[in-house]
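hi!! sorry for the late reply, been swamped w classes. u asked for the two structures so here they r. pasted raw, havent cleaned anything up. first the sequence of the first protein and right below it the tokens
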Amino acid sequence: MKYKAEYNWSSIDTSYQTASGSNKYGLYDMVGNVWEWCNDWYERNYYTGRPNPDVNPAGPPGPLMWRVFRGGAWNTYAVDCRIAFRGYDWAVYHFLNIGFRAVLDF
């Protein structure tokens, strides 16, 4: 979600999403509902100095202490509701604003 106050666009709307609600991959609701656990382990400097940061790396080998979560939640600031924002916590942590997404490969 993008907010008018952050981008100063001229519109009566206070927030913006695509007309269909999907992102450029055709996926819906990827951010802002609950933080979503990822399969990646968290290592603070893992992305530093990577030759191509646009490619989705598999993450550091585990098990490590923390797991990655992404996407923001209903109770977080809009700036955190981005797939690129990477949070982390204990792999066994659970709370009402953290979940996971079930996927089916066709």
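now the second protein. again sequence first, tokens right under
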Amino acid sequence: MPKEKITNNKRTVFRKSVNCWAMLILLLGFSASMAAGMPETPASQASSGMQLLHDKMAEKAEKWHSGNYCLSGDVDTAIEKAVSFLKEGQLPSGEFPTYVSLSPDMADKIYLPQVFSSAIVLHSLSFVESDPEVNEMRNKTVVYILANKEEPGVWRFYGKYSSMPPDLDDASVVFASLKETGIPVEESGLEYALNYKNQEGLFYTWMNEEKWMNESDPFYLLYKNNDVDPVVNANMLYALSLAGEQAPEVSDYLNSYIQNNSFTEATMYYHIPYIQLYTFSRAYADGQAEDLKPSMPVIKNYLLSTQKPDGSWGDEINTSMAAISLMNSGYKGKALDRAITHILDTQRSDGSWPEIGVQSLTFYYGSEEFTTAFSLEALSKYNELHNRKWQKTMRTLLNN
């Protein structure tokens, strides 16, 4: 690591540590500064008032400290390390490498370019504070994604040269990641996707016109028959919401799906509940799909009931997606602190988290970069959440 980067890391850790302790000191010592500006009062009255003020500040400080705010220094350091790891792993093309295997442990994996995974990393980077290093990564990823664009604004899972047809999952995820990164995106691809809906207004998965198809592809019949997947519909709802459009039929379908706990069963492309809940809650929180609000308590309660004693939800990628979903659902309690502590504890010395195979159809895909992106998003959202809580605490103290 360059000397300048090491110095910046040390400064950040020092600054956050000082801020953490300074906040406690500020809360406990606030009464002294207030006393200096008070008008003269009888001694007994002033003493009694200052004691009440001191007690109030001490109570606030205890709540602040027990809320794990002092994780912020560790979180900042972990974010910096994760960003550095992603920068080192990014390919010259701008892609973040992903591998495919027939085994959940990713044995005998092979490298295959994936537009989808790079779009997910780009989305996660949108929550990281901008600096030259982060901006360079974002720009390179955008170049890679746009190089795989096909008219009228669609994408394929493995890129424009694969035998798979374009699909609404990739088109929506890519559109959303570009939109939230600030890249001007033509909405012609989303408008084209509107052609692929069933009679109930729900979206199919594949853009299965013959011009996109290859009959020699082993999944040709799957593409032709098409299907309706809840996660694909959640991602389309997410993209449409970012574009200022609504899809009430999709919202109704997803609310029913979530409130019936159907997410506990595997879909064809998304086999674990946590990635499903991640996409549903993301559409609500990041896409402002307000119609999904009635389902957020269901998501929150399920996650709280399935969290393990060590703060995790099993492997590293499930834990990060679950922590993000908790925050997306509006939860801010101690279960989240335990989850973030677990994420911090499982980060490796190079800034990464382990490669975890995510199942889709008959194969598994993943990489260290893919897992790290979700962990980075969880930590960045947690940081932002506690920055807002810090500001709210200070406003409350100053107004009382």
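hope this helps!! also noticed smth abt the second:
The longest strand covers residues 363-366.
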